[in-house]
Specification:
It contains twelve helices and 13 strands. The protein is α/β, with parallel strands linked by helices. The protein has two domains: 153 residues, Rossmann fold (3-Layer(aba) Sandwich), CATH 3.40.50; 87 residues, L-2-Hydroxyisocaproate Dehydrogenase, Chain A, domain 2, CATH 3.90.110.10. Strands 5-4-3-6-7-8 form a six-stranded parallel sheet, with helices on both faces. Strands 9-12-13 form a three-stranded antiparallel sheet. The chain starts with a strand and ends with a helix. It binds nicotinamide-adenine-dinucleotide and (2S)-2-hydroxybutanedioic acid (LMR). The site of (2S)-2-hydroxybutanedioic acid has 8 residues, from loops. Keywords: NAD, Oxidoreductase, Tricarboxylic acid cycle. It comes from Citrus sinensis.
Amino acid sequence: MAVVAQLSPSSYTETTRLSSSQLSLSSTHLSSLRRRAFRPIIGPRNPTISCSVNQVQAPVAVEQDDPKSKTNDCYGVFCLTYDLKAEEETKSWKKMVNIAVSGAAGMIANHLLFKLAAGEVLGPDQPIALKLLGSERSLQALEGVAMELEDSLFPLLREVKIGINPYELFEDAEWALLIGAKPRGPGMERAGLLDINGQIFAEQGKALNAVASRNVKVIVVGNPCNTNALICLKNAPSIPAKNFHALTRLDENRAKCQLALKAGVFYDKVSNMTIWGNHSTTQVPDFLNARINGLPVKEIIKDHKWLEEGFTETIQKVRLVDNFTLILFVMNCIVFL
Ligand SMILES: NC(=O)c1ccc[n+]([C@@H]2O[C@H](COP(=O)([O-])OP(=O)(O)OC[C@H]3O[C@@H](n4cnc5c(N)ncnc54)[C@H](O)[C@@H]3O)[C@@H](O)[C@H]2O)c1
Ligand SMILES: O=C(O)C[C@H](O)C(=O)O
């Protein structure tokens, strides 16, 4: 058991003011003593505190859970309660949605989380709860992300939890954005990540199966994403298979760009582009059925050797340097689903 020192009279006054003027209690919202233990005081709501300037002599130790468990709980200001239905500006908002994000301290999630919290993905009347799953190594960075979310005061962001246990973080998740995985290094193929990353998705599939909403929609980003999505769904038999998606859109867009470049037209002139197979070197970008300005590709691009070899290999092997595109795809995917 760890201990924390009880708080000074000045912070007591400040928090009391906050809780009475801006926040109200909701019976449905989590509000445990454990939460209160690691946040500053919750003023009159905490029956153990009777504090005035005269009474306070020295810091008093209060019990707190193991500090490690702190990372599995609400973060910072997100431990405070609220009641959306009680406020004029928020009472017409939709019901809160639970979004679990793995790899939340990583590059991709780092951008995506802020777009989610800003309402750019699910809309300006959709409050969200973010459940951020990291690895043991990334825990400190994860705390930094939560701190930045706190600093940003996003009105729609009502809850943030951080931790490393998918069984806790995926509880009642309605969305699971599974980004956390090792990226490939120089000279590696995506399939080379399977040994390491496959296990992650087996475990997370089991956790989703055990605790997530039965309607959870799962978007797998971590590579090799198709195989990881399959591993995840096989480990989650109580969730409909149609709810699992692998984010492979990059290949289609890359193929459109390559054809556009070769044909000297803007990419909006390329249509009917399909990628068969996985997001890997085994994929087949289907230039036979694609169209440029409505015509078969082979009628516009006469360099058929390039189509058969160079084009296909480029799409199979190209690698993202800037993850921003990917973030836009995840956003679009959520909106589309
Ligand atoms: N599908 C696509 O089109 C696409 C595009 C880009 C990247 N990716 C893949 O997405 C993954 C993440 O990329 P990134 O750039 O964000 O990498 P990153 O290394 O910046 O972040 C990954 C994060 O995941 C965390 N992590 C590792 N194991 C975890 C686990 N078991 N649970 C929770 N978190 C865990 C790491 O600590 C790290 O913080 C990689 O596998 C990468 O190959 C896929
Ligand atoms: O290829 C990678 O390693 C990342 C991503 O899947 C990409 O296609 O750029």
